[in-house]
Amino acid sequence: MTQRRHGLVTIADVARHAGVAVSTVSYVLSGKRTISATTRQRVLASVRALGYHPHAGARALASKRANVIALVLPLRSGMHLPVLMRFATTVVTTARQYDHDVLLVTADEGPAGLRRLAAGAMVDGLVLMDVEWQDPRVPMLRDLALPSVLIGFPASPAGLTCVDLDFYRAGSVCVDHLAQFGHRHIALLGAPVVVYERDTGYARRTMAGFTDAAARHGLDAGVEPCEEDAEGVRRTVSALLARRPALTGLVVHNEAAVGHVLDSLRALDRRVPRDLSIVAICPDEVAVRVTPALSSVLIPAEDVGHQAVTLLMRKLEGQRVPEATLLDPHLAVRASSAAVRAVARR
Amino acid sequence: MTQRRHGLVTIADVARHAGVAVSTVSYVLSGKRTISATTRQRVLASVRALGYHPHAGARALASKRANVIALVLPLRSGMHLPVLMRFATTVVTTARQYDHDVLLVTADEGPAGLRRLAAGAMVDGLVLMDVEWQDPRVPMLRDLALPSVLIGFPASPAGLTCVDLDFYRAGSVCVDHLAQFGHRHIALLGAPVVVYERDTGYARRTMAGFTDAAARHGLDAGVEPCEEDAEGVRRTVSALLARRPALTGLVVHNEAAVGHVLDSLRALDRRVPRDLSIVAICPDEVAVRVTPALSSVLIPAEDVGHQAVTLLMRKLEGQRVPEATLLDPHLAVRASSAAVRAVARR
DNA sequence: GGCCGTTGTCGAAGCGCTTCGACGACGTGC
DNA sequence: GCACGTCGTCGAAGCGCTTCGACAACGGCC
Fold it and tell me: Is this model's pTM higher than 0.70 or not?
């Protein structure tokens, strides 16, 4: 367009064009000193006329701020990709609102990778996605001197800034919903055993929320870890129904298993929601893709991503932020849950 | 670690520590001038001792190379996320091998976003993922003066650098496979009608490959566009089977529909592969997740991502690269395809 | 043995930006 | 009417790095 032959439009070009000093242009653009309205207009007009964009490297060098944050993805690939993708795009768009760009970092460079970014002043801060209970990235965070925000909770979050869905309340909300519908015998179909053994934060917290709420309502409740493959689900479900024939309500916190659960119930000739009400904790996409559509507490990818970036920006400005930010669960009632029938079947 | 109290370790620190000039350190690190072995060792030792990493901004400013490439994701969200994610991580790791980092850019800033990156010298080049037949990002690419590589083919790829699976050959390979198994009556179950209407490149090319190969083998072949929802698939499949009862081979190029296709066939009491052989063009994950596992041509996410970055790096070094890079399809034979039975059923 | 071409190193000049201190040109207050 | 802030602008000093030209030191050559 209006760019110079070879190379970029520099702030000096703008200054010349507007007939002011370089520093004046800088102050107009940053707003760090008062500039008269007339001068400001003139400068801004020149900026537009020349199509000026500051040179990121020069800015970073002089200001000691790169205006870039890193989005650090974990190595393992067990998580739900659509949700992760929504996180990522939300992080990017939110960061842009704060005039920051996003550097995509995979954890496979390990600690050295993050250290490189820090030492090279490439980024001003980090957003770590999908943080696990025992996350290898967390220890290094402490001696890195880079502001960071974690999505998910590690075992010892003291001194860090963490954001996540409030899984405890999510568990409770599901139970509350079933209780309101008159269900007295319920179960939580949870993550695979290994997840509990790994001591993963969110699974435990959901379980606690479920158990506490059930106790509060005086319900007959139990927790079933559950594998994710069709066969494993089938076994778990039929064993559960055989053992607790009075069961009428099911909370499913295992998005991979959701489809198989419905298949199994169909195979066992149990109708949803006539014989059994289901509430799931899973991404909305999963909940509406199956038949019947599931009442569910969704994973608020957009909210979490937005919150994470906002918190990080606050930290970059030197403000203090809460260590834990738990986002309220929101229950969407759909076709899979209904009032318990007056007379118990079979 | 060994970093200075406040602020970074600079090249000057290294020079002082090693007892050489700043420029000498620079030349050791870049290799752009011959340096004696002894000096080099001394400098490298100092680099390690101090934990030196060059300041990215300063380097970008002085060298006019940011050592960062942008990964541009499209706005629409119709594509297969796991594959996209594998693309992305491959791009990141490959870029790292060339000492580059990756800036994540969503297309929702539009042309202005890319222009900003170019003008601000934030990135040295672009990788555009999931390029469509009529992609709004493509026109601007031409006057942007930034090296770029596209994943996928737009309508007019002249002057650009594009990488993708060779869908024409993918279509052919599927037909060849079925023909070898003796199938004479086959069909292509393709993308939804809108995709063909949108004139999307890959769908057309697959179709052409399918049709040409079928003609070459003298097969009875037809193409069926197919919606992605369960009901639409069911309709299409039963209509197809009713219309062409002799059909024994099916090529499915519609990853979202794959599961529904199998469901429909099951409902119609057609066994796979006994009554009907299926070959799919889809990500491996999709192919092995269903029962029976599908013979399939996979989308080589890793190869494509790797190729894209490699090509971009070659362009950054001023080398010429081919405009089109088509990756060979690879057929994985699994349970869903078999020799046609000697005597046709029903 | 003087000359020249290498080889290895140095010093200094920027790259484009931010920021600090300086400094006219204004009111204001007495 | 003079000293004093305040406001708006400027010039210059870096930020940490790359790169260019210069230049000792050293052999090889006739």
Answer: yes
